[in-house]
Amino acid sequence: MKYKMKKLPRTPFDSDAVHEECGVFGIYVPEGVPISPAHEAYTALFALQHRGQEACGIAVCNKGVIRCHKDVGLVNDVFNQKILDGMQGNMAIGHVRYSTTGQPSRENAQPLAITHVKGNLAVAHNGNLVNAPELRRQMEMGGGIFRSTSDTEALVYAIVRKRLITPSIEAAVVEAMKEIIGAYSIVVMSPRKLIAARDPRGMRPLCMGKREDGAVIFASESCALDALGAEFVRDIEPGEVVVVDKGEVRSLHCGIHEKSAACVFEYIYFARPDSVIDGASVDEARQEAGRYLCEEHPVEADVVIGVPDSGIPAAIGYAKYSGIPYGVGLIKNRYIGRTFIQPGQDKRERSVRLKLNALRRTVEGKRVVMVDDSIVRGTTVARLVKLIRDAGAKEVHMRISAPPFRHPCFFGTDIPDRDQLLAHNRTVEEMRQIIGVDSLGFLSVEAANKIAVGAKCSFCDACFTGVYPMPVPESVEKNIFEMEIQ
User: Fold this and answer.
1) Reported confidence tier of residue 127, pLDDT bands at 50, 70, 90
2) What does the entry's cofactor note say about binding and number (predicted)?
3) Is residue 477 part of a domain?
4) What is the CATH number of the domain that holds 161?
5) Whether residue 352 is found in the same domain as residue 384
6) What is the CATH number of the domain that holds 331?
7) Based on the domain organization, do 308 and 244 belong to the same domain?
């Protein structure tokens, strides 16, 4: 019997965007507090919906029994009042997913809940494991049977294997962290404990909060804590394992100490602007990006506009420091979801106009600075430029609040292969001509590493520089575990 790697078609998401990875959440409610963890998780996942729109799920623990509900779709598509009312317990974890490994399917939705010889557990994971293929191969050769095609299942198996030879679930997580390589923020729920862990480089965000009712909360971003009325306590440290057991919080460390390498693109694009990550405000970081853009790429213009949504804070920053007035130049249709089906290659421009439309009175007859967070393939930005010109702009100057994407990401950001990137093997002038602007300026790598004012970490900028914080494969294969039997 021969197995062949099967290339599956991509889902109909916007092909010219850097997609979010995932969001995780966990809550422990003290005994006797009349709060439904499932309903709290539902609220938190709404706050984290921007991190993934393919699938979502919630797992609850009730007297040692773990129940999980998950499916493909947005949070309000997958859950309703009846489902949430039926998910009783004192702990819950949740997940919103955008797939960077494995196709979008119910089997790949998280949390992953399993039963093993020493009990049961559920896991939600944000990030990507560089050595997942090697781990999975080892486990399959030992008789392991996998139901999903994501790297998260290999992570779960690694924890379970260690649980069989360690005295506690937290000890199993610590030992598993010595085997898994890559980016991960995880929440783990056992019959008695809620655990949060972050990889030794802190590549993906994870924070902790508390409420007056005694609830302990973990989330990918602080905006989820705000949604639940919780007080931000602190970020989980790189390599740290935090355990909540009967309401008491303990901290362990995996013993691996690496230079921190938080994803700088969290500040540029992924995170919500009202979040604070590793001590730095996301909104302030984006405005700082606009300031550095203004310093590095000044231009004489009449108005600055931002591409909704993540380009707007940088545009405000550019306008503030340049003295050029800021204006609303693009209106976003909030009712067009990311799964909007494109009406054929020859009608792509129509789909852009459905999602975004130019405000003529802002740009007509003016020299326009248009600020966006990134350029991937360049097709969408070229259509936006045409949109602004068609609305009467005299000049269009493009400013990008990130350096050019020249290299793939192996840590949970869905960046295409090099040959699909506009910046690969092209000069800025060549890119300018392709997208049809009067001038084009990218944020420098040096500035990108300075925008997160007050951040208590250093950053991974490998997608811009090609300098990775750890050994990586030669190429990215999103569907590496998809196979067909021949």
Assistant:
1) very high
2) Binds 1 Mg(2+) ion per subunit. Binds 1 [4Fe-4S] cluster per subunit.
3) no
4) 3.60.20.10
5) yes
6) 3.40.50.2020
7) no
Look at the chain and report how many structural domains it folds into.
Answer: 2
Q: Is 271 a domain residue?
A: no
Residue 408 contacts by C-beta under 8 Å, 6 or more apart in sequence? 415, 416, 417, 418, 463, 475, 476
pLDDT digits (tens, 9 = 90+) for 311-370: 999 999 999 999 999 999 999 987 765 444 444 444 555 667 788 999 999 999 999 999
pLDDT of residue 478 exceeding 90, the answer is no
* 111 within domain boundaries: yes
CB 57 within 8 A of CB 109: yes
The gap from C-alpha 455 to its chain's centroid, in whole angstroms, comes to: 18
Q: Could you tell me the end-to-end alpha-carbon distance of the chain, in angstroms, rounded to an integer? A: 6
pLDDT of residue 182: 95
44 is a domain residue:
yes
**Do 237 and 339 belong together in one domain?**
no
Whether the per-residue pLDDT at 82 is higher than 60: the answer is yes
Label residue 480 left, alpha or beta by phi (over 0 means left) and psi (-120 to 50 means alpha): alpha
pLDDT digits (tens, 9 = 90+) for 252-286: 999 999 999 999 999 999 999 999 999 999 999 99
477 CB-near residues (< 8 Å, 6+ apart) = 5
Q: How far is CA 9 from CA 18, 331, 479, in A?
A: 18, 31, 10
457 annotated to a ligand binding site = no
Question: CB–CB of 463/413 below 8 Å?
Answer: yes
Asked if 428 and 348 sit in the same domain, the reply is yes
Round the CA-based radius of gyration of the chain to a whole number and report it. 23
- Residue holding tokens 């909030």? 334
- Say if residue 255 is in the same domain as residue 287: no
Give the closest residue to 216 by CA, choosing from 244, 188, 250.
244
- Domain end call among 261, 295, 311: 261
Angstrom distance (rounded) from CA 327 to CA 316? 9
User: Is 409 within any annotated ligand binding site?
Assistant: yes
Active site residue 22: yes
- Is residue 263 a known part of a binding site? yes
Residues 137 and 203 in one domain: yes
> Taking Cα atoms as reference points, which of 6, 7, 95 lies closest to residue 54?
95
Q: How many beta carbons lie within 10 A of that of residue 361, not counting itself?
A: 12
Q: For residues 224 and 329, state if they share a domain.
A: no
Range of the structural domain that residue 216 is part of: 3-261
Query: Beta strand pairing status for 22-28 and 91-97?
Result: antiparallel
β-pair partners for 257: none
Same domain, 199 and 81: yes
Model confidence band, residue 412 (pLDDT cutoffs 50, 70, 90): confident
H or E segment to which residue 243 belongs: strand 240-245
